[in-house]
Amino acid sequence: MDEETFKRRTRLLGLRVIALSRAMRRDLASDVIARQVVRSANSVGANYRSACRAKSTADMLAKLAIVEEEADETVHWLEVLRDSRSIPEEAANPLIAEANEITAMTVASIKTLRLRSRAIQNPKSKIQNA
């Protein structure tokens, strides 16, 4: 997946979570968790954009690690909202699936960057620099 498509997906995740939070029932616990999930979901896109402007591979890896953490945290809060019945399963599950996919793609990118970084540091490695 190219950078622009991933930026769009991470931004849409944040926007979809905002819409979900506006539609959910209002009570103290739900409001607190809604704030958490809105923050984490929107942090995914913001930190991915930051990673795209990284100054080095190490900087990019550090920023992608934040993307991974925030995407996984988003899954957690969405599951809490679903399991507490603050939002219906049919509203939560597609967002959980998307956040899980973003987490998995981020992990794959981190692994690829680490392998490429090691190959560059060790030119005799069998790993090809692509």
What fraction strand?
under 5%
The shape is elongated
User: Which architecture per CATH?
Assistant: Up-down Bundle
The CATH superfamily label reads 23S rRNA-intervening sequence
Strand-pairing-aware structural class:
mainly alpha
Q: What's the pLDDT, averaged over the residues?
A: 93
Give an overview of the whole structure.
The protein is mainly alpha-helical and 130 residues long. It has a single domain, classed as Up-down Bundle (de novo design (two linked rop proteins)), CATH 1.20.1440. The chain contains 4 helices and no strands. Helix 1 packs antiparallel against helix 4 and helix 2 runs antiparallel to helix 3. The longest helix has 33 residues. The chain is elongated and about 60 Å long.
Highlighted features:
elongated; 130 residues; 0% strand; de novo design (two linked rop proteins); single chain; 4 helices; mainly alpha
Please outline what is shown here.
The protein is mostly helical and 130 residues long. It has four helices and no strands.
